[in-house]
Amino acid sequence: QKEVEQDPGPLSVPEGAIVSLNCTYSNSAFQYFMWYRQYSRKGPELLMYTYSSGNKEDGRFTAQVDKSSKYISLFIRDSQPSDSATYLCAMSGGTLSGGSYIPTFGRGTSLIVHP
Amino acid sequence: NAGVTQTPKFQVLKTGQSMTLQCAQDMNHNSMYWYRQDPGMGLRLIYYSASEGTTDKGEVPNGYNVSRLNKREFSLRLESAAPSQTSVYFCASSALETQYFGPGTRLLVL
Question: Do A43 and B43 touch (CB under 8 A)?
């Protein structure tokens, strides 16, 4: 079992839908949770960053962490065609390895929002 | 403020050829990383560096070497390219847990 599991999709939704993207993990030491968005043929860009459990909202995006269930979610409200991308979750225990933080990434979920 | 830059954007090599992928960041980050991304495999860490002069192996280091030239620059070298190294390579930098990625280098080894 991989440390971080993420359904690759694709997930296809109509414009305006509420999108839910999810990751599960097995390492209870993870405390820092990130979501990255990657457009086709581009590098990943940081979208949301949360520490420990709870919710964090930024515009149309809400990140949710449930440490008791080892489950994180990214919700996108009023989805737009411009949200079509691959979304990668990442998480870290906050400990240094060789002086650096090494996050564990999910494999990404491909989202398609059609007009 | 360019963030993380990578050169070249695209490269075709023949098996056995060598090349160096360049990466630079202007965010004054201490840590830098090299990843490869393949379909269905996600991001896999090749090497990382916590500071100038230090480098550590990641998940898939075989066939690669790295140099942390200074705080800004971190290069990845393929000494003898193999078709299995056909991939998209991303450089990233970080100050803490969050990473900032470059635009990537698409490498094709024939």
Answer: no
